[in-house]
Write a structure and sequence with these properties.
- It is built from 17 helices and 19 strands.
- With about 550 residues, it is of the alpha/beta class.
- The chain has a domain of about 300 residues: D-Maltodextrin-Binding Protein, domain 2, CATH 3.40.190.10.
- It has an 8-stranded mixed sheet with strand order 2-1-3-17-6-12-10-11, with helices on both faces.
- It is globular and about 65 Å long.
- The chain starts with 20 loop residues before the first helix and ends with a helix.
- The N terminus is likely disordered.
- It holds the Pfam family PBP_like_2.
- Belongs to the PstS family.
- InterPro entries: PBP_domain, Phosphate-bind_PstS.
């Protein structure tokens, strides 16, 4: 039934019992508060703005989380600038938190102290992801979107030992495909960067002699040594912009995968120890990080929850992306911390509670990979230290089992469901086969489907083509409806449903689970109730308003 159009209101007094739309919404929220203890608690807490600096590697997802919680009254200000700057600002007491891909190193590359000084702190893992190599390379006037490189080739490119795109090593990585004689221009970070530290840690561990030719110390560094044709830019966004610019043909840079995904720009498929070229989708990162060693022995240790990635670099699962890692928030846990108040601590707790739970469902679409639930649980333990420092901080209902997290299998907090359902690589991604014709930088797996470009398809692959079932050179991929062991990469059990690519949809993980029971649950409840009841309440209001104006 169509609502009657109310006549123009007269200036007569209205009944005090007629609620205006704003009052209706307020009443609805008040009703929610009387029926939900969590909602009442959420509205009773006092927030104060918190400020942080640091990583640009994780900045895109952090900014999304900040926008998500703004409606709850939380105000979080975050500026990039690089992990080194973030750690330094935190140590100087000029910020409330920092974000970094590496912990404090004790002494930096220049002999200066890289510690938190006298400020008590804890590391809090916030998101996983892959350090990707985005590039611009054109054949004629067409962008190459399916480039493949081995780790050895990448190491030699960034140490100026391979300087042209027609180099035989690049041709070999791409199964005989040739590229134009164009100079290679590496784009590196000019600032102290966690992305650089992660990249150079991998170089040091897997390609030590090559790395020492440019950096004799042979260790990780946050400041990439720029030589030759290399261009240095501050921040991941500027590296991405330089590569994607109109003058960027021939460039290659390293950034977190989210930047090319959001720019719709290609990335290199990196050869892993399983013999396949892969890109850092959320699935391949999740698989690789099952081999990470996280220091969890002593929760009171200063390096609690920090990562040892040597097993990740050497992972033999054909789905694993070698340069996978975590990003960390550095939080203040001292009771006498001069910057912190109860309101600030509460803001930090509730912001990170959202980020570690509901916020993780957005990691995949943004080019990151969600944390496994054991790290989320450990993150809750770190947040609880803010309550220990200040008894006024509300920590109720922080239960990891209520997290809507794509990695959670509902039974084992130490198992990563995302890694279990990760699709096997296409046969055309195997070393010596392909390359696949499908685009990179999309966040989705490659395919052998000729309709999607196939191996040697629209993007101009070379070598022996493989068919839909993996015929020809290479081996047939594991069917997409078969679950795969995250350690061996071998099929372990058939899924209950039929074929088609398997994707870990967060919705299917929450269909039989309770919603978040924290202070954000009332927002969802308000939306649902508003959709159900608000239209009817507005109809009643319009009718009463019409009657009152007659």
């Amino acid at each position: 039934m169509r609502l009657p159009v109310p006549p123009r209101p007269r200036r007569a007094a209205r009944s005090s019992r007629v609620l205006r739309p704003a009052a209706l919404v307020a009443t609805l929220l008040l009703l929610l508060g009387t029926t939900s203890g969590n909602a009442a608690a959420a509205r009773s807490v006092v927030y104060a703005q918190i400020e942080g600096t640091g990583s640009t590697w994780s900045q895109l997802i952090v900014e999304q989380w900040i926008a998500d919680v703004e409606a709850t009254g939380m105000r979080v200000a975050y500026t990039g600038g690089g992990s080194s700057l973030g750690r330094k600002n935190f140590a100087q007491g000029s910020t409330d938190f920092a974000i970094s891909e590496i912990p404090y190193q004790g002494v930096d590359e220049f002999g200066n102290a890289d510690t938190a000084g006298n400020r008590q702190f804890a590391y809090l893992p916030i998101v996983a992801g892959g350090t990707a190599f985005t590039y611009q390379l054109k054949v004629g006037n067409q962008q190459v979107r399916n480039l493949r490189l081995s780790g050895d080739t990448i190491a030699k490119i960034f140490t100026n030992q391979i300087t042209s795109w027609d180099d035989p090593a690049i041709k070999a990585d791409n199964n005989g495909r040739t590229f134009p004689k164009i100079p290679i221009t590496p784009v590196v970070r000019a600032d102290g960067s966690g992305t650089t530290a992660q990249f150079t840690a991998w170089l040091a561990a897997r390609h030590g002699s090559t790395w020492k030719s440019l950096f004799p110390r042979g260790t990780l560094t946050s400041y990439f040594p720029r030589e030759g044709r290399a261009i240095a830019q501050a921040g991941s966004d500027q590296v991405m912009n330089t590569v994607a610019s109109s003058s960027g043909n021939g460039t290659i840079g390293y950034v977190e995968y989210s930047y090319p995904v959001n720019e719709d720009y290609p990335v290199v498929k990196v050869l892993n120890e399983g013999g396949y070229y892969v890109e850092p989708t959320q699935y391949n990162v999740a698989v690789a990080l099952t081999q990470a060693r996280i220091k969890t022995e002593d929760p009171s240790a200063s390096d609690y929850l920090t990562q040892d990635l040597r097993g990740v670099y050497a992972a033999t699962d054909p789905r694993a992306y070698p340069l996978s890692s975590y990003s960390y928030m550095i939080i203040p846990v001292g009771a006498q911390d001069r910057r912190m108040t109860t309101a600030k601590r509460q803001t930090l707790v509730d912001f990170m509670y959202y980020s570690l739970c509901q916020g993780q469902t957005k990691a995949g679409p943004y080019g990151y990979s969600p944390l496994p639930l054991n790290l989320v649980q450990a993150g809750f333990t770190q947040l609880a230290r803010l309550g220990t420092a200040d008894s006024g901080v509300e920590l109720a209902n922080r239960d990891v089992r209520s997290c809507n997290n794509p990695t959670f299998n509902g039974r084992n907090l130490n198992e990563n469901r995302l890694a279990t359902v990760a699709p096997a690589p296409a046969a055309c991604d195997r070393q010596g086969a392909g390359p696949c014709g499908t685009d990179t930088g999309t966040g989705e797996p490659s395919t052998d489907d000729p309709a999607a470009g196939g191996s040697g398809g629209a993007a101009g692959g070379g070598g022996t083509a493989t068919g839909p079932a993996g015929a020809g050179t290479g081996t047939a991929p594991v069917a997409a409806d078969v679950q795969v062991d995250p350690t061996t990469g071998q099929p372990v059990a058939a899924a209950a449903t039929g074929g088609g690519a398997v994707f870990a949809n967060p919705l299917e993980l929450t269909s039989d689970r309770p919603g978040d029971r924290g202070p954000f649950a009332w927002v969802v409840a308000a939306e649902v109730l508003a959709l159900v009841f608000l239209p009817a309440m507005i109809t009643v209001w319009l009718r009463r308003r019409q009657q009152a104006s007659r």
